[in-house]
Amino acid sequence: xxxxxxxxxxxxxxxxxxxxxxxxxxxxxxxxxxxxxxxxxxxxxxxxxxxxxxxxxxxxxxxxxxxxxxxxxxxxxxxxxxxxxxxxxxxxxxxxxxxxxxxxxxxxxxxxxxxxxxxxxxxxxxxxxxxxxxxxxxxxxxxxxxxxxxxxxxxxxxxxxxxxxxxxxxxx
Length: 172
Fold this sequence. Notes:
The active site is at 39, 83. The chain is α+β, with helices and mostly antiparallel strands. It has helices at residues 3-28, 143-146, and strands spanning 30-34, 49-53, 67-71, 80-87, 92-96, 99-102, 105-106, 120-124, 129-133, 149-150, 154-163, 169-170. Helices cover 17% and strands 34% of the residues. It starts with a helix and ends with a strand.
């Protein structure tokens, strides 16, 4: 084999291996998503880019206040959504004058958010489902509109904002 053919083969082999590794990592470990709406402001803004850990929920369940990416529940649009987990399976949730109550106890929310004065529920969250709300409550189409998020629809938690570059950091 000539030096040129060997050099070309080495490059092709390197590129194919790199592409296969990238596809495996994207499918099983982490994936980049972009934010298309204002429903998570002020935590995340329109056009932000985030990284989602698609691996961690194989070993543990979503927790309250996790910011998660999931497929739209039901037979609606084939879109990915991002919201914050507020209600867990088996809980009774109600919103009175914008304040969330879990099993009758007011929930303390320490994350940044835009509050509203809405009323919702009471509802009992089914097994293997979550109630998710946007941080921009007045402008968020969330579980109050389209219902619970089935566990099987959840990709994973968003853990890192990577764009814009001057706002790179951990998502809380």
